[in-house]
């Protein structure tokens, strides 16, 4: 997910260098179709047209996640009512059909699970696809590792038991597993698939390695065939790049795996007045948003914007309005919504 400015992390240049090394290490496997992608059943990433709905704390929490607009004190019925309206607003305002939601053991393995299920149920009942992704905790736990495997696996057992028969619910074993090597992460993803064989593979999103920032290594692993791959890509990774440079940067992270890939996090400033419908070669974020949405459309990828709704986030494409008990949403930047729609195969191109 998009990190808050206070998050301790590598500088963009240093991080890019590490990523380049990782990509180079597997580039030989990405120039031609791998056995995994060749043997996989036909997947359709374009069906995922969505947004992330996030906790104001960036989804990193050492207690249950509480999505923007909801309350931990809400009953199942109250949560269902609020969630139904917010999901309806995502559809009405943006044309979305998918929502990505965080989970953690505090949410699932305790009393909060009953009301949190109302979010998932409301979205599914509205016909939305729901991607459930595990987030790690805060402080020393915010390190790119699974926090506590003794809590992690029971969490997924509960979630799978509840939703394995709901064809609209998808499972993403971990968000941004950046502490693991490419091989270590592929091993964990393969273990997840082996642990829950009742889950159809085309309802699993295997995160790209690192910060979900390249899918080439997981795509090349035959143990992960038949799954979707999730990619994250952000404009703040570079201080400045041209439109063409952003296109090239994105494509090297995808390799030949676009037919399995959903960008389930990407985003830019939406509350600062940027116009993403006009060329602005000197503006890094305009170059970025135009480049990535053009590329998603060209490569027939799915995409899930970060965030559709997160209180206090300048990237948020929606904001809460109206009665808190019966919330609705307003769009913060219509040009951003236009670019999202363009990436999904609708709308008009930017005249370059």
Topology readout:
Elements: H1 12-30, H2 35-39, E1 49-53, H3 76-94, E2 98-103, H4 105-108, H5 112-125, E3 129-134, H6 149-163, E4 169-172, H7 182-195, E5 205-207, H8 209-212, H9 216-219, E6 228-234, H10 243-254, E7 261-267, H11 284-299, E8 302-309, E9 318-321, E10 328-331, H12 334-343
Parallel strand pairs: 1-2, 1-8, 2-3, 3-4, 5-6, 6-7, 7-8
Antiparallel strand pairs: 9-10
Helix pairs in contact: 3-5, 10-11, 11-12
What characteristics describe this protein?
352 residues, alpha/beta, TIM Barrel, 8-stranded parallel β-sheet, two-stranded antiparallel ribbon, 12 helices, 10 strands, globular
Entry summary:
This protein has helices spanning 12-30, 35-39, 76-94, 105-108, 112-125, 149-163, 182-195, 209-212, 216-219, 243-254, 284-299, 334-343; strands at 49-53, 98-103, 129-134, 169-172, 205-207, 228-234, 261-267, 302-309, 318-321, 328-331.
CATH architecture: Alpha-Beta Barrel
What structural category characterises the helix and strand content?
A: alpha/beta
- As for the number of domains, it is 1
What is the H-and-E element order? HHEHEHHEHEHEHHEHEHEEEH
Count of beta strands: 10
The first-to-last residue Cα distance is: 30 Å
What does this protein structure show overall?
With 352 residues, this protein is α/β, with parallel strands linked by helices. The chain has one domain: Alpha-Beta Barrel (TIM Barrel). 39% of the residues lie in helices and 15% in strands. It has twelve helices and ten strands. An eight-stranded parallel β-sheet has the order 4-3-2-1-8-7-6-5. Strand 1, helix 3 and strand 2 form a beta-alpha-beta unit. The longest helix has 19 residues.
